């Protein structure tokens, strides 16, 4: 896992350092997820007061959205770890080209090079 990725501007990054960063973020996001789930459970407690029901309904909707976004982020981070383990980390899943070091530092979960990511966003590539 100590493979080195060379960037466009001769920047070098060890994959093990990126993997450490991913693991740290996973730990952080899992902690957040536990807090959000506990808050959701707490917000779901019934109340006969109509105003409280509306407030709780809004809170539940907000928490549900946060939980969904957090779960998606965790999924992407776990997929990045799987790519590290399989030796495909840093390679675009569409064109097979290298993903720039700068992109991987900013978005370690990136599975596409910037060009393919732009093509996908513009509807020229399928997910």
Features:
mainly alpha, 5% strand, single chain, 127 residues, 63% helix
Strand order of the largest sheet: 1-2
Strand content: under 5%
How far apart are the termini? 27 Å
Shape: elongated
C-alpha Rg (nearest Å): 19 Å
As residue ranges, the low-confidence spans are none
Order of helices and strands: EEHHHH
Assembly of the depicted chains: single chain
Specify the biggest β-sheet. Answer: 2 strands, antiparallel
What is the SS-derived class?
Answer: mainly alpha
Beta strands, count: 2
Question: What percent of the residues sit in helical stretches (DSSP H or I)?
Answer: 55-70%
Mean pLDDT: 85
Quick structural overview:
Helices cover 63% and strands 5% of the residues. With 127 residues, the chain is mostly helical.
List the helices and strands and how they pair.
Elements (H helix, E strand, L loop, with lengths): L3 E3 L5 E3 H29 L6 H37 L14 H6 L7 H8 L6
Antiparallel strand pairs: 1-2
Explain what the structure shows.
- With about 130 residues, the chain is mainly alpha-helical.
- It contains four helices and two strands; from the N terminus they run E-E-H-H-H-H.
- It has a two-stranded antiparallel sheet.
- Helix 1 packs antiparallel against helix 2.
């Amino acid at each position: 896992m100590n493979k080195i990725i060379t960037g466009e501007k001769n920047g070098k990054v060890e994959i093990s350092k990126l993997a450490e960063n991913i693991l740290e973020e996973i730990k952080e996001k899992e902690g957040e997820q536990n807090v959000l789930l506990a808050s959701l459970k707490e917000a779901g407690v019934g109340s006969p007061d109509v105003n409280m029901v509306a407030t709780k309904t809004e809170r539940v909707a907000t928490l549900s959205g946060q939980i969904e976004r957090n779960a998606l982020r965790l999924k992407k981070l776990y997929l990045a770890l799987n790519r590290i383990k399989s030796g495909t980390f840093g390679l675009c899943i569409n064109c097979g080209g290298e993903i720039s070091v700068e992109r991987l530092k900013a978005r370690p979960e990136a599975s596409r090079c910037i060009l393919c990511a732009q093509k996908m966003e513009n509807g020229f590539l399928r997910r």
